[in-house]
Amino acid sequence: MKPLRKSGLCSAGKYGVKMAPSFEQLLAASVSAHGHLCPGQVLGVRMSMLGLALLGYEAPLDETNIKKVVVVVEIDRCATDAVSVTTGVKLGRRSLQFRDYGLMAATFVNLPDGRAFRVAAREDCRDKAAEMLPQIKDPHQREIQAYQLMPASDLFIAEAVTVDLKPEDLPGYHAGKVVCEKCGTMIRHRREVKKNRRTLCRVCAGRAYFKHIKPVVGIDALNPVESPGSKPPEG
Hints:
The chain has helices at residues 23-34, 39-55, 78-87, 125-132, 139-149, 152-155, 203-207, and strands spanning 11-12, 18-19, 69-73, 96-98, 105-110, 116-121, 156-161, 178-179, 186-187, 193-195, 198-200. It is of the alpha+beta class. It has a five-stranded mixed sheet.
């Protein structure tokens, strides 16, 4: 395995030497962003640290390396927030991608060379937590504590994989935009659909995740942001 590439997002250590945040610091940051401490937070932080280490990076990714890594998460639960905070990848940067598989797993892709590793939580880690800390009767608290102490091999299964990321799925991708021939909406990132010789957005092509009811009117009265041309409040 290659030596870890030092992260620039590190706290200052003794004598001014910058050191990577500890697991405890990363967990605290994740809990602060997520809102509470839970087993999924612990798993997400450790999963992220392991995934980046397999690629040769430390957590969190610094400004140089953040553009080199894409993480694909497979579940929309607590661990996903931990993955984002610990690695630094974000949905808005297109470096965090979601595949709704319902699996406690994430794949870490190194864009420069295509190396990728999938890290998945072991299904027997709860049983191992019970064996490790039988004195803690509350399963929730027991897992929080045990997952911080267990060896990585007791928590995760890691494997080298290949990931087919299309150009339009990559961070920084820019391409021509097209207009939906039915509703006029601008379609980005090659997400258009060809149907009956027409270029349509996925909503107009019948692939929406919602059903139309009716337009909402009068939204200006509810808008909390004052428009430049609006009158100042009286009084």
